[in-house]
Amino acid sequence: MRRKLLISFLTLLALAVVAIVVGKKVLVGYLTPDFLVRQIERQWNCRAQVDDLKVTLLGTASVELTGVTLVPRDDFAKEGKPLTDRPPLDVATAPLRCDTVLLELRPAELIRRELNIRQLVVSGLSVSTSVNHEGDAAIERLFDRPDEAAVPVLPVAQMAVSGEEPETADAPKSQPFATVADRIDVKDGKAEFLIEASGTTIRLEAFQLSLTEIDVNPANIGAHNRAAFQFGGDLVVIPPADRNGDGEYLRGHVSGQGEVNPFDPETAKMNPAWASDLTLHQGAQINTFPVIARLQDLLKDVDTAGVDLSDLNIRGTLLADAKTRVSHANGRYLIEKPLELPLPDTTLMIQDGSWLHTGTNQHAMQGRVIASEALTQKIEGKVDAYLKKKAKGFPTESLRNMVLGPVIQDGKLTIQFTSQGDLAKPKADIVTPFGNLSEVIDTGKATLKTLEEAGKSLLKGLFGK
Predict the structure, then answer these.
(1) Which of 136, 180, 271, 370 could cysteine-pair with 347, CB 3.0–4.6 Å?
(2) What domain count does the chain have?
(3) Are 296 and 214 in a shared domain?
């Protein structure tokens, strides 16, 4: 009996597989690379290339795209040429390339000609673009509506793609689609952004990104314009070509989570604004940013009362995770929570309210440089040595407190600073209460001498010689 049941089950399974294979030709035969390329080029201002496409209806239905490439729109896209009549794209220079794109679908809806996506997984994403002086990335133009498109603008979260001529004889003449992505994942991605205003290159390597709680509809962005996200990857900041000797400005692992509003409510165009809790992880290497280099020079120039700040090194390996909250809109990045960067000799703290604009390369920053306890003691020792030599008998303890007291917080030397203007040539300044101790000492000595002479005169008047 069991054997008969098993044979019956296997027979039904075999018949089901045959039915699926036959049904696939009838129901999804129109899903070809040419069909998808045509849909992409009708919606976006780009030329597309899809190397291969596979449809699976066993288990969770899925469509896997291989070799998806987007480049700026050209005549081949404008004329709707089939892929066989186009030369292959140079994927090495393409602004956007994906090794694979996997769409997990609801089988019943696929049969009804609805492409409702449960999950979209993008693997091997590669993005390369520049950012102009307004803070706009060149790649954003790929996702504008094509000028010659006659089809209406449709929601991203529920994009109705109008039907067209079938790719096979089996396919119907017109097939409306609706796509809804419950979740979008990017795996093993890399992105490179050239900042035109400064020549700096920002890279994200081996990054992972997940978009969830997606509620986006450009037709009603007042109520539907958000998604949650999580990300992680290796951040590398590279100086302009004329400053290669500086090495990398920064290399470290970053991660975070937050919320993004993909569309500008005023223009209804894609212009993402987001806010994220951000972590720069322990072990990151922080090198010579122009602001840091300028602060380093200013610290070395401080020479008041023997205060030698040349040992305040604000570069090195991050000793612990540094956490903050950052928001972005229209190219402007705002620090919403203080950022504390613990380094071997110092801690660099950037105050909330500091900001930078990647398009114009402008910034405004306030912060503190905090010396370690060991370095603070070393600086105090140098001040003591200076005072003993300079004061020549004048009490030094009160003088040292006078000099260092205002800048000692919790037993550590703390220097406040500001910086603004062009990031390449920052106008940085040290805000400290250091005074001219030489004047204090000279005034003190003169006062003592006057008191001494007044005392001698008084004694002489009282007792004669």
Answers:
(1) 370
(2) 2
(3) no
Amino acid at 103: L
71: in domain:
yes
pLDDT digits (tens, 9 = 90+) for 42-88: 888 899 999 998 888 776 778 888 999 999 999 999 999 999 999 99
For 461, the token pair is: 């008047």
- Rounded CA separation 407/368 (Å): 11
pLDDT in tens, 182-228: 788 999 999 999 988 888 899 999 999 998 988 887 778 888 889 89
Q: Which of 320, 304, 289, 296 is nearest to 407 (CA)?
A: 304
3-state DSSP call for residue 331? Answer: coil
Q: Which domain holds residue 56?
A: 27-281
The pLDDT score that the predictor gives to residue 311 is: 74
pLDDT at residue 319 above 90? yes
